[in-house]
Every structure is written in structure tokens, then in C-alpha cells.
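Before a colleague's protein record goes any further, I have to sign it off. What it holds is a sequence and that sequence's fold in C-alpha cell form. My question to you is simply how this chain folds and whether the C-alpha cells agree. Thanks in advance; the entry in question is below:
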Amino acid sequence: MDFELATLHLLQILEDLHRRNIAFQSIMDGFATNTAAGRMVFSMVSAMAEFERSVISERTKAGAAAARRRGRHVGRPAKLALDQLDYARRLIVAGEDRAQVARSLGVDPSTLRRLLAKG
């Protein structure tokens, strides 16, 4: 669930609890929603948490973009090295079963099929 949606959902739950005269008390943060001050603190904490998550996301994206500009790989490491992929191609051309070749390389057959299709 998206963080903003989760925050909105949490606020809706707290409003529903308030309408039913049920107070929420945060043991970790030391506030309760049965007071105006507690509701204000909850709103501020929610806003700050959302802001912090947005800043982290922006920094992560900026870091990944900078790494790409420097020619660095961003993301998960490749399952097979290029020489392993070439070896798999040679075995398959020689008549070996794709599934067996994939197992011998320690990857799922669908992974090998996808990598071979990429080129």
C-alpha cells in the first residue's frame, strides 16, 4: 500500500474510532486522540513521517540517477555472467535441454529463457 494511502487510511480509522467515542493512545509516542492536543500531535507526526519518506525517496532516486550517469549498474546483480550466457547458448545449440542447462547454471528455466531472449 502506498505510504500516503496508508496514512490516510490510519487517519480514517482514528476518525471512525473518535465517532464511536473510542480513544487511541500511542504508548510509544505518548499521546492520545481523545484530546485536541493529542489529535494535533498525531497529525504532525503523520505529516513529518510522510515528509521524511518523500525526502528519502527523492534522495534514493537522485543517487541512482547519479550512479547511472557514472556508468554504474543500478539494481539487482545479473543472475548469469555474459560468459555463462554464451556457454548456455552453445549447449542449447548443441542439443542440450534448456531446462537442464538452466539447472546446471543454478537458475530457473524461465530466467534462462528471459536472458536468452534479451540478447
Notes: Strands lie at 25-26, 31-32. Residues 3-69 form one domain. Residues 36-69 form the longest helix (34 residues).
